[in-house]
Amino acid sequence: MKGGLLGRSVLSAADAGALADLPSRDTLLARVAGALAAPMVQFAGLLQALPRNFAYGLRALIDKGDAPGAAPAEPPVAEATAADADPGEPADAGPGEPTAATEPPPDTPSSE
């Protein structure tokens, strides 16, 4: 092809080749429609993500036990082993609890 005519314009061979490389009219219209719809689709996805992420976060708080109004999680009770206990204190007595080796408080009547 050596050239062409488009309306009242004369096209060179390079112009006619560039015109032939263009996609079809339907393809160009679909690209324009997609470009116009993309911001709306992104906005709709954002609006769907907000409540979904809120629900995931709320579920994670409930599972963790830090949610307001939830029952407080009890701390794990550490069991003392015989090796960890003081030699002067029996293993079943906790800190601050009287043991058989300690004397009763002075206001408690003694059994003499």
Secondary-structure blueprint of this entry?
Layout: E1 3-6, E2 9-12, H1 13-20, H2 25-64
Antiparallel strand pairs: 1-2
Rg over CA atoms: 41 Å
Low-confidence stretches: none
Helix content: 40-55%
The largest β sheet comes out as:
2 strands, antiparallel
Number of H/I helices = 2
Structural class: mainly alpha
Question: What is the approximate shape?
Answer: rod-shaped
Summarize this structure as a short list of keywords or feature phrases.
2 helices, single chain, mainly alpha, 112 residues, two-stranded antiparallel ribbon
Q: What can you tell me about this protein's structure?
A:
This protein has 112 residues and is mainly α. It has helices at residues 13-20, 25-64; strands at residues 3-6, 9-12. Strands 1-2 form a two-stranded antiparallel ribbon. The longest helix is centred in the middle third of the chain and has 40 residues, at 25-64. It starts with a strand and ends in a 48-residue tail after the last helix.
